[in-house]
Amino acid sequence: MDEPTPAIVRVHPCGSEPMPLHSVASSRAIERQGQASLPPHTLMRRAGEAVARLALAVAPHAGTIWIAAGPGNNGGDGLEAARMLHLAGKRVAVSLLADPKQLPSDASDALLRTQQVGVPILDGLPTRQEEALAIDALLGLGMRRPAEGVIAEAIAALNAHQRPVLAVDVPSGLDCERGQPLGGLAVEADHTLSLLTLKPGLFTAQGRDHAGAVWLCDLGLNTAHTADAWLSAADSWRQVAQVRRHAQHKGSFGDVVVIGGAEGMTGAAWLAAHAALIAGAGRVYVDPLAGGQAGPAPMPELMCRLRISDDAAALSRSTVACGCGGGTAVLTVLPAILEHSARLVLDADALNAVASDAALRRLLRERSARNLPSLLTPHPLEAARLLGCDTATVQGDRVAAAEELARRFACAVLLKGSGSVIAAPGEPPRINASGNALLATAGTGDVLAGWAAGAWSCKTEATAHAVGAGTAWLHGAAADQALAGSTRIALNASRLIGEMARAASLFA
Asked: I need a labelling partner for 162 at 20 to 30 A (CA). Which of 250, 418, 472, 475 fits?
């Protein structure tokens, strides 16, 4: 009896269930276990067959296909795909950019099988671009240094290709754990077929721009090993969403206190407060640090309560969002907020204040010992200030940066950006794949911080890690819903709140 064909699944940013992510070491371990239990060359043949099937699916009318094959097993996967595509009636040409005598055993077997069916094997790059599809099978997941020589030339040729590009396992040149192009050069694929496991770098930093649509084929192996990280999904939001019962009242859903909005930046605090209210908070108080210059509340449902940051009792029963538009004025109120807030979301200028003051850093760390949970929501520059490094270092390994922040301050961290990372001590990190560049506009971070506080006030038993993961996912899913069928290049923060409310209902 023929063995079942391993499924190929699309990894959707707004998927329902979280998916495991594996490091290079974990992926290698799974591969070794599979090879030990199967006849020689089986995994590579399955991989090649999967690549060919996806190629036929994404470019069914491509009569001519070029495959750029490198010197390792990634190249062997490409050779096996070439054989299958040739047998399917496609015109296939392979550029083998390696010494055939130096290929690994599996790849050498794939080369022989491909030659036997008559696939042309070129020893260089094609001189003309006639192919309707290109397949990147140059470099695998273990690549740790920038591409050079003819491999770098092939990456440049793939990026200049005017037709779709399908990457095998990872786009060549992309660090599959960190999501950064090595030496600044990596394939920009339209599709990536990740083999055996999903890799974190496909979903964070520059990974999404290079990977395009991500697909997964586990090659028929049981890959249910302990994950190194998780890709968030709608389930992340469902874990913190609160079902409203008929007999509940506003007191059932907790109070949120928003502290921020220094002179000239009051809008940030009101945006956060509006988001908290729509997220479900029973009552929302705003303490504008601009004081009497704050003006009336832009929504009658929001309550302006000057100096509520001095009210220890109010803070101790509330979920507090602090920092949105806080300026330097936030420095004076932070000690009491760190000391008394029952649950705390720190954003923007509150994070900058903590970064600049050792006493505030100590107070933040001590909250954990008193069972007072905290969630930090930095963008990369704020994270760099907290870590005492530069932004390039944070972006160079976003997962490591988020985990270090979580360890250093004993709290949950939501490191914003493409592929936001959510980390907390003792928890596997989560990477959020929802969202798009519609969010790249002023105030969307304030909305995220306020929504997190509002959702947390409704479900106080939720962990800060769960609140961060759920809010980040919903924030991105709302932007994805807004983008569907739209040509807008930005989503203003006020409208985002309404989009999040719609997404919360849709994915409840």
From this structure: 418
